[in-house]
Amino acid sequence: MRFCPKCGKKGIIGDFCEDCAPPTAALFPLPELKACVHCTSLLYKHKKLSGSLEEMLAAVVYDQHKKKVKVKLADKEVIIKPGLAVPVNLLIRGNPVQVKIFGTYCEQCKGINDSTYYEAIIQLRDCSDEVLQFVQNIFHTHHAKPSKIEPVRGGVDIYVRNQGFAKMVGKRLKEHVPGHLHISHHLVTYDHLRSRDLHRATLYFTQLKHKKGDHVLYKGEMVEILSVGGKRIAARGLETGKKYDLEYGELVKSS
Known about the structure:
Number of domains: 3
Shape: elongated
Number of helices: 4
Largest sheet: 6 strands, mixed
Distance between the termini: 72 Å
Helix content: 10-25%
Number of strands: 15
């Protein structure tokens, strides 16, 4: 366990405790930093730092000076605005230090205020008005807004800014509406901050029109739907009496 060589206090981080440490403004100068005003990440050396602002600044201090220190915010509130360099007052080892943080957008968030920006498309095909209303209610409940809703032949395309949110909507559809959901991805660009490819997602959903008692054609045989469950359909061949346990997608493609 580390201890302060001046007062003997145990459990310190660094060379001295906060009371005995020398002034740090000159010891730990910090460069002007950039922060994403949407996701609040610090953008440092082509990387995105995550965590609290104090934790991210402590990581910058360690990278710059190879010293593990505890960083505290001296300001009650820090508001980072796009296009402005905001002075942020800190306490490092009990001494005041100021760093300027320039507000901007990271690669993932730069289009968040752009009405044309989207990360996923929800394609509803052969769906009732109730299904569209169901999807719109999910957006409303989460205070979200699609980038665009475009009517197309056989349904609508809903452009969504956040891919994770779009997949959550797809999961809700699959749980509450009988039908078939297919998800695919395609490459859009390369993220230099995270050194990885960025993809857009397409969620294609087709509603199942059939209900219990309906007769439909399945692989050349007329079958009767016995039940429509949460994820699967039970059916029986009218001529052979053979029973089928089907996924929604199988019946959608055959009908």
